[in-house]
Amino acid sequence: MATFNLSSPLVIEQTPDGYRYSIEPFLLVNFAILSTGNRLLDIGTGCGIIPLLASTQVELGKIVAIEIQKSLYDLAVINMSKNGISGKVSLVHGDFTGSTLSSKDGLFDTVISNPPYRKLNTGRMNPNHEKAVARHEISMNLNSLLTKTSSLLKYGGTFVMAYPPLRLKEVQETLCSHKLFPSRLRFIHSSREADARIFLIESVKNRQVECVIEPPLFVYNKDGSYSKEMEKVYASFNYSSWAHNIQQERYRDRIS
């Protein structure tokens, strides 16, 4: 089973200048409903943050994480080793949509992804290639992501992702076209005065259910500190002080 001691703080190495995760992995894992023995797939794992966080929550039966960028994949290998779960997480280097991952190897209970969210030729393309691939649909678009994801989810399995509200209608329609039916939705606001900048959505394969709109989450207080609810999210990973180690500007840049 893939789990480790919650009393041991996670050791996570990142590149100083390339793509660095922000708050989305914490929100996604907190939002996902993971059960003991589940098979979990993380698409676009980056430095391996989602497998590490998920491993602190529940004893999963299997974790597979795929990353297309070699530099980030290498970091994920290092981070799994540093945290003692190399033997419990199967890391794959490659393009998810063209990968050898197949239903023949077993279907997944849950798939999580914080995918590229900007269409090509929209928004400023980051000059840093690592960041550009993580944010723009260079290697994978929404349709190709969902086509492959649907083929790897078991009947009734869940897919959880984060995306900008500007593309909510497109996401809902594309999910349904792949027999992934929205079941829960939550909007994330930087503050109570701000519009939602991202949303979390859960969909269920081959099972139509009513979509529950969960209460919004406000990340910051008026003074710029993290809200009580956001602090609770960090605390759920035994990182009540983690917020102080992540620059707020990274989140604001990610969702601008």
Task: List the topology elements.
Blueprint: H1 24-31, E1 39-43, H2 49-55, E2 62-67, H3 70-82, E3 89-93, E4 108-113, H4 129-135, H5 142-152, E5 153-163, H6 168-177, E6 180-189, E7 196-205, E8 212-213, E9 217-218, H7 228-235, H8 248-255
Parallel strand pairs: 1-2, 1-4, 2-3, 4-5, 6-8, 6-9
Antiparallel strand pairs: 5-7, 6-7
Helix pairs in contact: 1-2
Quick gist of this model?
This protein has 256 residues and is of the alpha/beta class. Helices cover 28% and strands 22% of the residues.
Any overview of this molecule?
- The protein has 256 residues and is an alpha/beta fold.
- It has one domain: Vaccinia Virus protein VP39 (Rossmann fold, 3-Layer(aba) Sandwich), CATH 3.40.50.150.
- Helix content is 28%, strand content 22%.
- It has eight helices and nine strands.
- Strands 1, 2, 3, 4, 5, 6, 7, 8 and 9 form a nine-stranded mixed β-sheet that branches.
- Helix 2 links the parallel strand 1 and strand 2.
- The N terminus and C terminus are likely disordered.
